[in-house]
Amino acid sequence: MKKLTTALLAAAAMTSVSAGIAFAQADYPTSPVTIVVPFAAGGPTDTVTRLIAEPMSAELGQQVIVQNVAGAGGTLAGTQVANAPADGYQILMHHIGMSTAPTLYPDLAYNPLEDFEMIGLVTNVPMTVIARKDFEPNTFEELVTYVQENADSVTYANAGIGAASHLCGLLFMSAIDTQVTTVPYQGTGPAMTDLLGGQVDFMCDQTTNTTGQITSGEVKGYAVTTPDRLDALPDLPTTAEAGLEEFQVGVWHGLYAPAGTPPEVIEKLTAALQTALQDENVITRFAELGTVPVSLEEATPEAHEAYLAEQIDLWAPIIEAAGEMAQ
Fold first, then answer.
1. pLDDT tens digit string along 175-228?
2. What angle do CA 134, 186, 294 make, to 5 degrees?
3. pTM score, two decimals?
4. Which helix (H) or strand (E) holds 220?
5. What is the DSSP letter of 237?
6. Angle (nearest 5°) at CA 314 between 203 and 176
7. Which residues contact 280 (CB under 8 A, 6 or more apart)?
8. What domains sit in the chain, N to C, each tagged with a CATH number?
9. Tens-digit pLDDT profile for residues 21-51
């Protein structure tokens, strides 16, 4: 009888715990949610995150806080969230670097496809090829020729290994079969500062970080890396128009939660993301920055996971051919 009573008490306790967990999931969130950004405040990924944070807060009924954890090409933030409690209170916003990290970092502390639950894609930001305003080439075609003829003296700035500007540079140099001197910085801000100051020749970066400088004439704009011209930069030709069809790249962003986060929590986060992507202010501000929200079909865990796997396969041979793995 005593054993039966003990067993019944244990079962009741387990039922109570399960019910408590289920209730907590159903009641999620009951406190602020943090979106970890792998790069410094003020950069393109930070800008995208802060724009969606407010409408996500309204949908979730809790404040969405943005935390910047910069370093190691975004892998510090990735490691932090991969090891965070799987309860939906700490999630990650990352860009294309999530698909290149497995090849760039042989000792990566996480597997992007196994150590995270996908929440949904957010946006695909076009890239622009820009240069210091007094750089000799005046068109994209002239830039390609100039770089090929002066490869030993030309300098290309990027925001560090794994940054969007680094990846865009790899693809550009692969497309024109020419290697130039690269100058890595600790973030987009310092790279842009030196470009504006004329210390480096050219770079490639997201429209969220370059549109203002191009339209103001602070830098020389050459092309956009998209199939079509952008409304925000109508005078810039596409790289395909300029004769380099194989040089097309966009910097997509997605939201991630730690592996094991309950489906009910992921569902709520995905719903909040989709609400944010339909917000008029988000749509307007994205347009001003030269991008648009993804479709609601793309802002889902299923579409996100499929796209991430596809992008990992796309970038691996390009990075390996360039031999630019982090040590």
1. 999 999 999 998 788 999 999 999 999 999 988 889 999 999 999 999 999 888
2. 85
3. 0.80
4. strand 219-224
5. P
6. 40
7. none
8. 32-124+250-322 (3.40.190.150), 126-224 (3.40.190.10)
9. 444 567 999 999 999 999 888 888 899 999 9
